[in-house]
Design a protein that fits this description.
Blueprint lengths: L8 H46 L8 H13 L1 H25 L6
Length: about 110
């Protein structure tokens, strides 16, 4: 039996391409993860700004206390009504936008 310990140029080239593809995949995943983290952070900052805008005393409470306050506020009947109104308005805006651009947002 003949055993060839050296690799052919074709195999070496293919192995390099595999390693390059792995590196490109890792980079794409890293960029996607960084983008997601950035988007989440922007949303957190926006939400914190909104809470502070309407509840400036919020910095005087710890996380547990704020959770209790916000949970009660969001569960209130008035807040639930507003949430439903905003959802309906948003749904109407999506339909209006999709009609203007000829796309279907409900897919």
């Amino acid at each position: 039996m003949i055993q060839n310990e050296t690799k052919s140029p074709e195999i070496l080239k293919a192995e390099r391409q595999v390693e390059q593809a792995k590196a490109r995949l890792a980079e794409a995943k890293r960029k996607e993860s960084a983008k997601k983290r950035s988007d989440e952070n922007k949303h957190k900052y926006m939400m914190g700004g909104i809470v502070h805008k309407y509840f400036p005393e919020c910095y005087g409470f710890d996380e547990h206390e704020l959770n209790r306050i916000l949970a009660a506020a969001i569960k209130s009947e008035q807040c639930q009504r507003i949430i439903e109104i905003v959802k309906r308005e948003s749904a109407g805006n999506e339909t209006h936008i999709s009609q203007n651009y000829g796309t279907n947002q409900s897919d």
